[in-house]
Amino acid sequence: MNKINPIMLPIILNKLKKRFDNASPDLMQKYNLSKLHLLYIMVLFEHKEGMTLKELTEFLDFDKANTSRAISQLISKEYVQKKAQGDLEFKYNVELTVKGRAIAKNIFEKKQKATAALSELLTPEELSVLSQIAEKLWQFLSEDNLN
């Protein structure tokens, strides 16, 4: 196999993302969800205390309008709910409902199977290095160094 040029990294990552996205088409159809909805559900699943719309928007690096629209759709499906922060009703977190948490758990289990397939491809040492690289990439992206 030829050595892969680093310029191919975005293409490889995109293909890997598509592979993971396609791990749960049956659940997307069953629950009437889009790939975008899945991202919000999985982030909220990992942030059990909930997040503000601003935090969610910044975490996923999406625009505010898309986040607002997607969360409204998830609220209407009763997968997500608003939870007021103290006495101020206009300040709230969004969090998964019991129904949303059950769906997220199903999605998480499907994604785990896809992750297991990747894990079988790599040695433990390679997985460790990949984890370290992923942490560095996450830090880089979190610092917004691309602009």
Tell me briefly what this model is:
By secondary structure, the chain is mostly helical. The chain has seven helices and two strands.
Can you offer a commentary on this structure?
With 147 residues, the chain is mainly alpha-helical. It has one domain: Winged helix-like DNA-binding domain superfamily/Winged helix DNA-binding domain (Arc Repressor Mutant, subunit A). The protein is 65% helix and 10% strand. The protein has seven helices and two strands, in the order H-H-H-H-H-E-E-H-H. A two-stranded antiparallel sheet has the order 1-2. A hairpin with a 2-residue loop joins strand 1 and strand 2. Helix 3 packs across helix 6. The longest helix has 24 residues. The chain is globular, with a radius of gyration of 17 Å. The model has no long low-confidence stretch (mean pLDDT 86).
List the helices and strands and how they pair.
Blueprint: H1 9-21, H2 25-30, H3 35-46, H4 53-60, H5 64-76, E1 80-85, E2 88-96, H6 98-121, H7 124-142
Antiparallel strand pairs: 1-2
Helix pairs in contact: 3-6, 4-5
